[in-house]
Amino acid sequence: MLCGVNLDRFDVIDFIPGDFSIATTIHDKRNKMDLKLVFIYGPAHGEGREQFLLELAQICNNNKLPMLIGGAFNIRRFCSDKNKPCSLNKWSDMFNHVINTHELRDLHLNGGKYTWSNNQSNPTLEKLDSLDQ
Fold first, then answer.
1. Which Gene3D superfamilies does this entry report, sorted A to Z (predicted)?
2. What domain range includes position 86?
3. Domain at 71, CATH number
4. How far is CA 99 from CA 2, 10, 60, 96, 112, in A?
């Protein structure tokens, strides 16, 4: 995972790597305020998802600043996030619980409804990314 900020505009206050995230506190020099940026890469399969969701909840619990969380969560929230029939599972329920508990909200996607494709002739399309608080 790679993340970066424009040092002409921001100062990096701290940088905390996790198993599934990189969390950094930055100071916006122009607006004179601190922000938390969290970059996520969740496990693509069931193994590790519980630890991932615990890490995400802990980041939210420990944060008191305005926060932007983005990346690849790799958990479907709703069946409407996929272009083919689907079923939700306990990971979807746990993910939605973390989102609702910490009052996170999805950012509106620009340019399309989905963020991932399997690039087949009859593609599977899914929305897998982006939240903010």
1. Endonuclease/exonuclease/phosphatase
2. 10-132
3. 3.60.10.10
4. 24, 27, 9, 5, 22
